[in-house]
Amino acid sequence: MKANELRKLFLDYFAERGHKVVPSSPLVPRNDPSLLFTNAGMVQFKGVFLGEEQRDYQRAVTTQKCIRAGGKHNDLENVGHTARHHTFFEMLGNFSFGDYFKKEAIAYAWEFLTEKIKLPPERLWITVFREDDEAFELWKKVAKVSPERIVRMDEKDNFWQMGDTGPCGPCSEILIDQGPELSCGKPDCAVGCECDRYLEIWNLVFMQYDRDASGTMTPLPSPSIDTGMGLERLTAVVQGVKSNYETDLFQPIIQNISSLAGVPYGSDQQADISYQVIADHLRSITFLLSDGILPSNEGRGYVLRRIIRRASRYGKLIGIDKPFLYGLTAVVVDEMRDAFPELVDSREHVAKVTLLEEERFATTLDSGLALLNETVAKLKGRGSKSIPGDILFKLYDTYGFPLDLVADMARDMNLQLDEAGYQRAMEEQRNKARAAWAGSGEEKVKPVYSTVAGKVPNTVFTGYDTLEDDGEILAIIRGDTVAPEVGAGDEAEIVLHRTPFYAESGGQVGDRGELLGEGAKFSVEDTAKPFGDLVVHKGRVKRGVFREGDAVLAKVEAARRSDTVRHHTVTHILHATLRSVLGDHVKQAGSLVAPDRLRFDFTHYAPVSPRERERIEEMVNQRIIENHPLETKIMDVDQAMASGAMALFDEKYGDSVRVVTVQDVSRELCGGTHARASGDIGLFKIISEAGIAAGVRRIEAVAGKHAYQAFKREEQDMLEVARILKASDLDIVPRVERLVSQVKGLEKENDQFKSKMRSSQAGDVVSEAKSVDGVKVLAKRVDGMTPKDLRDFGDKLRDRLGSGILAIGTVKDDKVNLIVMVTKDLTKRFHAGQIIKELSALLGGSGGGKPDLAQSGGKDPGKLDEALKRLYTVIKRVTGNSAAEG
């Protein structure tokens, strides 16, 4: 049975039993900063299990795309070296939200495995939590499993919890005996052993308790079911192979890789590891990029960058030196498109960004090789045979060199590795990463928010239709506690039963305004959703007293909201226009919608050209002039997606969604506030366009009166330029072009003059050189030079010197610049880069370079003379050491 058939069989089985087939959620968890990536099927239902949200179904089935390559769940280093570790995998799961419980979950799992896919019951084993007698008895009664094949396990293995507090419960695992040939051979090998004989297939979690901060567990009123089964493992079992990589999920990818390498899969163990790493990583790369994640130096983007570079490195180990991953992403798309059709639309985007990152890594790799070669040269000079651990780690962490790649190079050079030092550096980095992760996970939500959210109903938002509404105060929060009342001068957060205030979300800032009570006024400075759908109005009491239960009039600041809706609606139009002008690969990668500006991040591989920028601005304004009406509809999410509505990968959508359509222009899922027609926007102007990450561009723009003001500022600037040049409007550009040409001519003449002066000066300066143990050494301060002037002067001094070492320093505009030059005949004894490190340390700077040329800056101009004098000491020390060694 093929993997695609197995996936469909699983979904169909549970759909026939009343389960809603729910599409996979994105790899970036929606509104859940506690997770780096979606790593289990239950993640998209976390809010349901916590009681924060409701669904219109009580049974669900999914095949969830998952990543485990960062944060607490990190399988990266094991991938390719074992039969079952992956960075990307699919999690099959069935869920019950207070509907059925243990009996049905056990019956479904057993029937599916033994009757639908015909796994031999005699090869299946069961584990249960040691205290879960109910599950033990149900396996015997419902599934007819003999007691000796049901193993009780402790809490570490068979008890699941979402966090330190909250829903939790025992779990039960189904394992398959793969045969004694896969046993570790130990006499006590049995279920629970770490070897490959007993393979876990399916985990059934029985969520039946709520654990509080003291550790006390209270039975949940509506117990739930959460199950998970890896498609890759199940496919390997059904297809009768011992490794996931031998299944049809991986073989098409592996065969394409082996064709490039020219070595068949299965013929070379080391090559096979590389094939498996690359095949796994290609799946992660394709899905992460398709979901809108882009390579960067932090967070999720950093994990993606590491995966791409790791795959690229393994390509080099099998002789593939050119970029190749980008071409193989199409294989992943073709293999997975039936289950994940979103991959098809991202095909071009995925390939282009992958190629960009491969090319970027090629440059980094060259820099790493330079560091390695420099290190090896020093080691040989000292007679050392071991590459230090800190260098090994720097090669790994900064330049992306795996230890095995350096080990291969070291063997060729008859060198050893300080692996213990490398492991120490690695462990230190891991400790730092753990500390960073602990601080960058779920933002610390004040307990008071969850307390209030559990006691009050969700606030009804009425701001689509009105900017004023009556409301009742449901709760008042001051600091970390609930307060019965607040008075003049107090800062507070007020929760209403209904409000016209929009709470910050979807990139749109929160509304401001005021709450008016009986003789009281509260200035709303921001509106936010700190926990789930709890809406708080943040601000300060201006006069009077507000109490829980009070009736208030909520008034949104109309002008600010009006400016905000203009910027929000034009953001939708801009998004559609970018796709029209630049291509369908453009996807939103982030946004800010404020009253005075918008910021729109989008996927694109190159700077937007002046012509493209002009065309984008022109098209947006044309669509504003055409006054397209806006329409909003509440639709089923599947219906909305089928209608062509665009969704954002990092936004959270329920089963019913709000679709905003700018007629004949765009259609997006959006909960924000909008203009009634595009003509209400008035005017649009792009302020700037720039790159912010590999494959990500950012446009900052303004609309309405702010666009008019921007155009007026440009006009005023132009008029001022015309006044200064004494030119008419039409003559400004030709006049400026003539001035620029004249300036360039004068600069050229000035450079030629300075060059002649420096040549003349060089002859005088060279005479100041001193002999240090037979080596001519020159240190000179020449203030007022630019770095370019300094380099040019250094070249002339070196030519005049013939053989020797020189250091030249300059101070210009309170900035220090220093260069060191070593003539070619002396570079085997002296290294300019090493010399300048000692000199620049005195200046509070850092520097480096090649054996014959190095440069640096500094923060302390007052130490320049001392740094230059140090040159003679450094040379004396080196010549003395050389003499001693000789």
Q: What report would you give on this structure?
A:
There is one protein chain. By secondary structure, the protein is of the alpha+beta class. The protein has four domains: 3-243, Bira Bifunctional Protein, Domain 2 (BirA Bifunctional Protein, domain 2, 2-Layer Sandwich); 447-556, Elongation Factor Tu (Ef-tu), domain 3 (Beta Barrel); 561-714, Threonyl-tRNA Synthetase, Chain A, domain 2, CATH 3.30.980; 768-885, Roll (Diaminopimelate Epimerase, Chain A, domain 1), CATH 3.10.310.40. 40% of the residues lie in helices and 26% in strands. The chain is built from 24 helices and 37 strands. Strands 1, 2, 5, 6, 7, 8, 9, 10 and 11 form a nine-stranded mixed beta sheet that branches. It has a six-stranded antiparallel β-barrel with strand order 15-18-22-21-20-24. The longest helix has 36 residues, at 347-382. Mean pLDDT is 89; it is low at 436-443.
